[in-house]
Amino acid sequence: MDGLECSEVFFSQIDLGDRFDAEYFAKEYIRVAQNLENVHTKKLGAFANFVASAFYPAATQLYSIGDTAFVRCVDCIDFPIITAEQEDRFEKIPYSFGTANKGVSFLTQGEIVITKVGTPCYASIVEDYETVALSRTVLGLSKIKGIDPYYLMVFLRCKYGYEQLYRKRELTIQYQLTLPRVKAVDVYLATSDFQKVIRHLCEQYRDVKAYSYSTSFDGEGAITSAINYVTTEELPKIYILEGHGEAELPASFRDQIEKENMETESLSLLTVDAIPEDADCVMIYAPSSDISQEERDLLADYASEGGKLFVAAGPVPDSNLDNLYSLLADYGIEANEGVVVEPNREHYSFQGPLSLLPDMNSHAITDSLMDENYSPTMPVSLGLTVPE
Questions:
Q1: What one-character DSSP code corresponds to residue 348?
Q2: pLDDT for 160-197, tens place per residue?
Q3: Can you give the pTM of this predicted structure?
Q4: Alpha helix stretches (DSSP H) within 232-374
Q5: For residues 252 and 172, what is the distance between their CA atoms, to the nearest angstrom?
Q6: Which residues of the chain, if any, have pLDDT below 70?
């Protein structure tokens, strides 16, 4: 049945005192747990003291006389590092009220907040504030020891930390995190040098964020990539074709390939009789001249035996790519002469009708772009005919 996912779970894996539902045993969660079994980990509870508050003031007049940032779930989701840039976003409660109220807990610089209800499972680190008060929608990790706190925050935000937290949510009136479950999260113990790298990424993010809200933070991707690298027996290998005036891969594209733990190597078909057996993919990126008939035949043989081709090619001056396009035609993709001109002003950018602004539909590849309201621009595009 399309869309049906099945996981095989042994009875020995079931804790009858824990969640016992289909989501808990989803394949992705099981894969995360299995990968972490193959690296050096330690329980989160070993690294810090855990604190929580039972207080959430309903009286707005308390906020109006406050002097201490009052951290709620909404203050953490989009802010991995809590800095003075958020000053205007915080509600505040009086410090004297908090210290006199046993239901209020505090954190200091270098300690970590985790959202526990509302939108749970997001970690943030306190940086510019000597003291913040916690609402009941978050919990705190204080007196962190044995691990760099910035690395720990980023780990908890990466795939391997966040998905553990998400899996450990407990359903009461709504899904929320509880202290015992959070303490049981497995933390990947990276080398001290790698932890310093992650801390440096946090510092760069903070410095840029101070004057720009458009920067992105990808320390989480670095940790996810590191764990994937350690737990993957064979890394995918991409051969990048050369010898036809190919353009250099954009730096962001190459960085993403490396982060996905894919090895790359240049390939000239002039000196081989077949595509290397360890090729998981052959990439042809922006050639300025055509491949030969012999090269076309080598690539066709490779593809017919299950090999994968990544082709990015378009109009080139003073040349035709007939052999390359004939290879694509074997798979129902016909390259048309000329470039696409868009007459509808809503679908081309200010650069003119040759700079297309296509509509995007929901897909695993495009969803993250759509969430951030990105608009893809496709200048000087070749027309393709693809069978329906």
A1: B
A2: 999 999 998 887 767 889 899 999 999 999 888 888 88
A3: 0.62
A4: 251-259, 293-304, 322-329, 367-371
A5: 43
A6: 1-22, 57-61, 173, 207-220, 222, 226, 229-233
How far is Cα 352 from Cα 343, in angstroms, rounded to an integer?
A: 10
Within 13 Å and on the Cβ side, how many CA atoms surround 44?
27
* Nearest residue to 117 via CA among 69, 77, 88: 77
Tokens matching residue 155: 């780990």
Element (DSSP H or E) covering residue 199:
helix 192-209
Using one digit for the tens of pLDDT, what is the confidence trace for 269-302?
999 999 999 999 999 999 999 999 999 999 999 9
Q: 326: helix, coil or strand? A: helix
Output the six-digit token pair for 230: 């350690």
Identity of the residue numbered 99? T
Which H/E stretch holds residue 309? strand 309-312
Which H or E run contains 171? Answer: strand 170-171
Q: Torsion-angle region of residue 134: left (phi > 0), alpha (psi -120 to 50) or beta?
A: beta
Residue 245 — left, alpha, or beta (φ > 0 → left; ψ -120 to 50 → alpha)?
A: left
Residue 313, phi-psi category: left (phi > 0), alpha (psi -120 to 50), beta (remainder): beta
